Recover the amino acids of this structure.
């Protein structure tokens, strides 16, 4: 028993005196749980509370367009953006914002939508031939999405917009239907007359057969039927009911036709998919996990004395560091190309998922991989320089990568995060890298669009490198 | 003014002892965390071709002194000259004439003996045939030929020690600095190492050697310096030191007399 107590005391003292170990044990999991919980919590909030900013252009300037806007405003799901710098949005700015990902969705109501919908409603009510002509795009309600949004988000927003459009359509149809009801009833008056005739024919038929039976007895012929149209067997209310139901199920969705597409300013349109949205995030995640072997290599050198020996050699520490940097950046390239191969071949061939399309910006892909690889290696250098042991480096490194990835939108898209977390996510190099790849893969972006994030990644590397060299000189 | 005086002292020492290869003047080293005065003003000059022993109990300052001479640690105060080159604010060129064999096995465990020798040779500027010849030379001298393709992490302690020495001096430096190179080594390997060091010393290589084994120092070194608590407390040839303290039979007894029998940190 005494030995057990002595062992417990020893372990407790060792733990209490290991400040970095305590930080790892308590601070890191605390940070992790905060970040992950906030992102997950916001997933639920985003469905229930958080509003999605949606760009809105109303060319209709009439009741239908206004009704859609009012419905969007009343919805707890959307915040309608109609203006830019005090002026109404035009289609060029609208498409630019969405294609660049500054806003995730937008809706354009075409001209004369109200008049068109009334005209089509009347057509449904009065006409037997209810197949409408195919409309040009400009005459349809157009809904655009940022090509980089995740499929689940796109579907959720799309369904919410469908509900708003359809409920507005039904309201317009019913209003039109009741407006047209008196005329409809007038038109059906002949049906009422026919019903009377039908009744008269039926009575005549019955009386005639009855008299024949009575006069001719067994010589009377079988029951003689008089010809009459089918419609005469159905009363007016049934006709209306049937007509109403058929019209609703077959044509109501054609009243306000909707065109959904991804906003893309480039000539070449890339079709975003789950694969294209996921590969960049996980490629960055993999690259930053290089922290484990890289920091491990630095710590091994420190622990085993090779680092001491290296310091006695007539070689600059820069050269030793650059040896590591180049080797590990090459590993990052290999990791990235492995992820590309999985996206391009394994997903479609093995799992039947859409294949990754990488667009035509190959130079930008190489540049992005270089910048991301350098940032990942810089991160590994800092962790390796600060950590005292392998365990510290492995735990701090891996937990930080998970936190940076969560902030970078790996588990929950950044645009669904709450404002404060969204602001913090701007400091995650994994987010910078992911955004660069998304821009290239799904927006076909060139250097003009991605330079800022590239610069941030390279700056992150430079700062990490300088800190590493400073820590080295400080330890002398 | 102080710097000028130190450099003037250096030229004075060089003038008095022209063959001096290491000159240490008023050297101080202070560690901030925790505050420790590791060296409290060391003055030392080591002549070319000497087998020089640096002795001292634990925490005496031996490793700190060696680390400063090798450029691993910065100097808090004073100066160190290696073959006329001042190492304060050095450009690293003095490092070409020294070869450190650290106390730890400072080799990459997952690389083979040969790969380690190649790497450290390349870091010293060797390449091509010169490097290949040098690896063969040291593999023969340290009897590593059969083990060249073994990874360090599967080698025995003796092979690791011999490879550690070969990696430290593969560039044939003018000064060998060996920090307890025979710790944990069997008698056979130890004898091999001694023979090799004696041979290099006889060829003109200056050797600065630290050890806790007094019989090693007595047998190998032409001059020993005993330091304790950051100060030099005695210096001279082993024989002179034994004679100086009458009644003492060997260097070990001299060492204990000078440093005391109290246990150190």
């Amino acid at each position: 028993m005494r030995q057990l107590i002595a062992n417990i005391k020893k372990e407790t003292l060792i733990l209490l005196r290991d400040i970095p170990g305590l930080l790892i044990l308590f601070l890191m999991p605390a940070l992790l749980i905060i970040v992950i919980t906030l992102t997950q919590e916001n997933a639920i909030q985003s469905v229930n509370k958080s509003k999605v900013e949606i760009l809105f252009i109303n060319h209709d300037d009439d009741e239908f367009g206004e009704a859609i806007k009012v419905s969007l405003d009343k919805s707890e799901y959307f915040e309608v953006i109609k203006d830019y710098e005090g002026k109404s949005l035009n289609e060029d700015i609208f498409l630019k914002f969405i294609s660049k990902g500054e806003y995730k969705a937008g809706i354009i109501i075409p001209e004369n939508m109200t008049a068109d919908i009334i005209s089509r409603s009347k057509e449904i009510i009065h006409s037997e031939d209810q197949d409408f002509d195919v409309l040009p795009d400009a005459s349809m309600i157009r809904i655009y999405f940022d090509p980089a949004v995740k499929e689940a988000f796109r579907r959720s927003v799309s369904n919410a917009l469908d509900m708003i459009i359809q409920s507005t359509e039904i309201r317009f149809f019913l209003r039109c239907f009741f407006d047209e009801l008196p005329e409809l009833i007038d038109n059906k008056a002949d049906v009422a007359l026919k019903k009377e005739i039908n009744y008269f024919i039926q009575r005549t038929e019955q009386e005639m057969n009855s008299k024949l039976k009575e006069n001719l007895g067994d010589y009377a012929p079988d029951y003689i039927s008089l010809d009459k149209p089918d419609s005469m067997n159905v009363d007016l209310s049934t006709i209306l009911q049937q007509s109403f139901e058929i019209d609703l199920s077959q044509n109501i969705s054609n009243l306000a036709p909707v065109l959904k597409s991804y906003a893309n300013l480039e000539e070449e349109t890339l079709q975003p998919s789950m694969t294209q949205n996921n590969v960049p995030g996980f490629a960055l995640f993999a690259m930053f996990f290089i922290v484990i072997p890289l920091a491990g290599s630095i710590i091994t050198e420190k622990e085993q004395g090779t680092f001491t020996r290296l310091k006695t050699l007539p070689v600059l520490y820069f050269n030793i560091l650059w040896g590591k940097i180049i080797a590990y950046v090459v590993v990052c390239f290999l990791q990235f190309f492995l992820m590309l191969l999985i996206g391009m071949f394994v997903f479609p061939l093995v799992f039947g998922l859409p294949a990754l399309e990488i667009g035509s910006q190959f130079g930008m892909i190489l540049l992005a991989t270089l910048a991301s690889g350098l940032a990942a290696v810089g991160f590994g250098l800092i962790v390796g320089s600060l950590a005292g042991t392998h365990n510290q480096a492995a735990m701090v490194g891996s937990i930080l990568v998970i936190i940076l990835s969560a902030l970078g939108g790996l588990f929950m898209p950044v645009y669904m995060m709450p404002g404060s977390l969204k602001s913090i996510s701007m400091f995650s190099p994994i987010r910078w890298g992911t955004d660069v790849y998304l821009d290239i893969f799904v927006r076909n972006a060139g250097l003009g669009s991605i330079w800022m994030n590239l610069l941030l990644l390279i700056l992150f590397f430079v700062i990490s490198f300088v800190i590493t060299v400073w820590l080295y000189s400080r330890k002398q | 003014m102080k710097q000028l005086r130190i450099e003037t002292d250096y030229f004075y020492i060089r003038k008095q002892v022209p063959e001096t290869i290491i000159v240490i003047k008023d050297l101080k080293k202070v560690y901030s965390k925790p505050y420790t005065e590791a060296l409290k003003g060391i003055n030392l000059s080591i002549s070319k071709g000497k087998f020089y022993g640096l002795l001292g109990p634990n925490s005496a300052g031996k490793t700190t002194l060696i680390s400063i001479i090798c450029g691993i640690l910065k100097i808090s105060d004073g100066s160190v000259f290696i073959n006329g080159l001042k190492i304060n604010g050095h450009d690293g060129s003095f490092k070409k004439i020294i070869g450190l064999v650290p106390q730890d096995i400072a080799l990459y465990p997952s690389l083979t003996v040969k790969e380690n020798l190649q790497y450290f040779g390349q870091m010293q500027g060797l390449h091509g045939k010169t490097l290949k010849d040098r690896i063969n030379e040291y593999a023969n001298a340290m009897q590593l030929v059969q083990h060249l393709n073994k990874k360090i992490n599967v080698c025995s302690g003796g092979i690791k020690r011999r490879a550690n020495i070969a990696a430290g001096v593969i560039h044939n430096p003018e000064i060998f600095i060996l920090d307890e190179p025979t710790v944990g080594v069997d008698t056979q390997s130890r004898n091999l190492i001694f023979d090799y060091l004696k041979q290099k010393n006889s060829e003109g290589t200056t050797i600065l050697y630290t050890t806790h084994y007094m019989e090693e120092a007595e047998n190998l070194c032409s001059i020993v310096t005993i330091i304790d608590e950051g100060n030099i407390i005695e210096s001279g040839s082993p024989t002179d030191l034994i004679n100086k303290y009458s009644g003492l039979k060997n260097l070990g007894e001299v060492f204990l007399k000078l440093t005391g029998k109290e246990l150190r940190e």
In short: The mean pLDDT of chain B is 86. Chain B has one domain: 2-259. The radius of gyration of chain B is 19 Å. Residues 2-259 of chain B form a domain with the Rossmann fold fold (CATH 3.40.50.300).
